[in-house]
Structure formats: C-alpha cells, structure tokens
Specification:
The chain has 278 residues and is of the alpha/beta class. The chain has one domain: Arginase, Chain A (3-Layer(aba) Sandwich). The protein contains ten helices and ten strands. It has an eight-stranded parallel sheet with strand order 4-1-5-10-9-6-7-8, with helices on both faces. Helix 3 packs parallel to helix 4, helix 8 runs parallel beside helix 9 and helix 9 runs parallel beside helix 10.
Length: 278
Amino acid sequence: MPANGITVIFSPYHVGIRDHRVGNGPNRIRSLGIVRSLENLGVNVNFELLRRLSKAVTNAVADNTFPLVLFGNCMASVGIACGLQTRDLNFIYFDAHDDLDSPDVNENGYFDAMGLPMLRGESCKTLTKTILGYEPFTYDGNFLYCGLRDQSDVQRQRVIDAGMASIWGGVDQKVDFAAELKRHLDEKSFGPSLVHLDLDVLDESYGKVNDYPSPGGMFETELITCMGIVPKKSNPKSLTVCSFDPNAGDGDKIGQIAIRAITRFVESLLETAALSKA
C-alpha cells in the first residue's frame, strides 16, 4: 500500500542543544519552504516537532505516512532505524564521512561520528538498548555509501572490514556518481531502505555546508539525479537530511539545494506509486 502522505519530523538539535550549529539546519530548510514545495506536488504533509525520534518514526509509519526527518546530527540514523522496526533494513548513505567510528578509534572526540557502531551493538550498549525498537543491526552486504571520501586509513579499512559497499568520491578522477549508484542498485536488491543525506556529500566548491567540507564530492545536478534514482531502484522507508550548518557558509544556497533534492526524491516516490497524492 502506498504511503498517503509525508510526515516531516523536525528536530533542530546538535549535541542536545537547540538551534546550535548543524542543529540550525532544519530551521533554514523549513524557512526556505520545504513544506510548501512538497504540498505543491499534491502531497499531504504533516509536521511534527519531536525529540524522541524512534517513537516519532514508528508513529509516522503506523499512520501510513513516509518519514522525512530534518535533523541536526547524523546520529539520527540510530533512532530512525529502530523506529522503522524492519529487521531486513538496508542503508543508502549519501555522506562524505562514514560515521563508523567507535570510541576506541575516534581521534577527535566528535560523538556524531559514532552513530553506526552504536546501532550495530559495538559501543554505548547500555544506553542504546533503551531506544524504542532497538536490536543490533548488521551492515555486511546491505549498506551502500555514495560520496564517501573524507576518511583516515583506519576509517576506510573499518568500512571495508564491515562488508559495506561504497561509491568513493575523490580528487584523482571525477566519479560518475549517478551511473555508479544505478550499477550498485541493479546488482544488489536494496529492499526496505533507510536513506540518509548528509549535505556535506556536496563538493566543497559549494562552500561550507558544515565545519567539515572536502573536495571530490557531488555537484548539485548529480545529487538531484541520485535522489531521483533511489526510489526507482530500491524501496525507501525514510529519508533523513542532516548535518547542515546554515551559518558556516551560504546557508540559503545550500538550503535551496536541499529542498530541490528532497523534492526530486518525493517526485520519484510519486512516480513509483510508493506515495499517493492527497
């Protein structure tokens, strides 16, 4: 049954502080008109301000709506994956960073880089077990990065050792991200999928999306094309947009790119009948 609308789950927090750094990104995307853009597609849009992300996602799915999560941190994936309550969940990650640091290998103390080890039961086990719907996930054969590039050798090896596939970005040669994404999604069936868009997947030529820009990333046209591909080649169950600090660079420019990317994704949901109009 197609979803009968979009539930926008709005959580403007960074390390528990409201509207701080990347926590302010959801505010900018909202103020630039994301709800209006989706309503213009004829989609029913519900809007929620909730901190308890797992429960919010579970409720959105129970209402037969598609969860669109505007979040500060990449850590959102922990709550979203638990809230979807889908044991055969796949992951399609647009991100310059792998978010796979455990406390044992992390070099800068940045907690937001440690979400995926928590979700697979590697770290913070006691607290992670308190999240509604939590059970440890595996990433071997069901995880695809696109645009991954800003890593140490240790981080890169952890991705490989975990069995996670990656379309690597880089400066040595230009990557055809859309063609590579199609190839990966054609070669392996990505059924129910958590789709994650960290806006620093964009190339640093767009300016600072957050405090961690890097070269060799996606251009806007590539990102929008990829957003159209994903619903046609997989079965998305949620979309997260995160890690955007509108005060780090040209916030309006990046925010508008985010809206165009989200809108293309939702158009593709409509085109594949995964979502119905109001």
